[in-house]
Every structure is written in C-alpha cells, then in structure tokens.
Design goal:
Layout: H1 2-33, H2 36-40, E1 43-50, E2 58-59, H3 61-72, E3 77-90, E4 95-108, E5 112-127, E6 130-147
Length: about 150
C-alpha cells in the first residue's frame, strides 16, 4: 500500500509542475496580448515583483498589474516574452519555486527595440486548488538596445 501512496504523491508533484508551467505561459500570453484582467489571476493577492532595471519593488497583485499595464499596455509598445528551461521544485503541498530562462523583445515604436536575456526566479503558492505567483524577480544578463530611426 505504501507503493500506491508514493505513486499518488509523485503524480501530484508532476501535475503541480505542469500547472505551474501553464501559469507561467498564461503570464507571458497575458502580458503580450495586454489581457490585464486575466493577468490578475496569475498573482496571489500579496505577491511581490522585482523587475530590476532600477524599478522599485512592487507589492501586491494590483500594483504589479498596474505597473505592467502602464508600461507594456501603451499602444506604442509591442512585446514578445518567452520562458524556457524551467527548473521547478515543489517545496510543500502548497508552495513551490522555479527558475526560468527569459528571452524578451520589446519594441517601443519610433523609439527603440530591446532584446533581453536573463532569468526569472519565482515563488508560487497554491490557493483554492490553483497555483499563483507569490513573488517574481528578473535578473538580466544581457540587453541589446537598438535606436529606431
């Protein structure tokens, strides 16, 4: 019977990892398609975000989504975000952490284009049976800016 319990736990961990991967994909899709109401569902109420580049730490789901909307939501902004090679660790039945390779391209029309590479470091919490981002931090390792003519 212990083998069955072990198998059930291993399956639950795999299902949680897959759910976290889907959450991250939803986050990127919502950012690029400017789906701010749907984006709110990606974050826990008390989430924090550190997007680097001298931006102050954002506290709370509403503040994070407002920041993203104010910056990525402009008509002149086109973005494409990709996350790769997830390293996800389930740390308890309701917590997890993950590291993702980041590649993003931001086009600020008539001004500049940014190609960026780095890493996301995320913490997750399971609330009401679903995973949410508890914290997120970007560490950039390379940025390539091109001025628009």
């Amino acid at each position: 019977m212990a083998e069955l319990a072990d198998l059930e736990k291993r399956i639950r961990v795999l299902e949680d990892i897959e759910a976290i991967k889907k959450l991250k994909a939803k986050y990127f899709r919502c950012a690029d398609k400017k789906l701010w109401d749907e984006m709110e569902g990606c974050f826990a109420e008390d989430a924090v975000a550190d997007y680097g580049m001298g931006i102050e730490l954002l506290q709370g789901r509403k503040a994070i989504v407002k920041f993203l909307k104010d910056n990525l939501g402009r008509e002149s902004m086109i973005s494409a975000h990709q996350g790769h090679n997830p390293e996800i660790e389930i740390t308890s039945d309701t917590t997890a952490r993950g590291t993702w390779v980041l590649n993003d391209r931001l086009i600020i029309q008539t001004i500049a284009t940014l190609n960026g590479w780095g890493y996301y470091e995320d913490e997750y919490v399971k609330e009401n049976g679903g995973w949410k981002k508890k914290s997120t931090k970007i560490t950039r390792i390379l940025e390539e800016w091109t001025q628009t003519k």
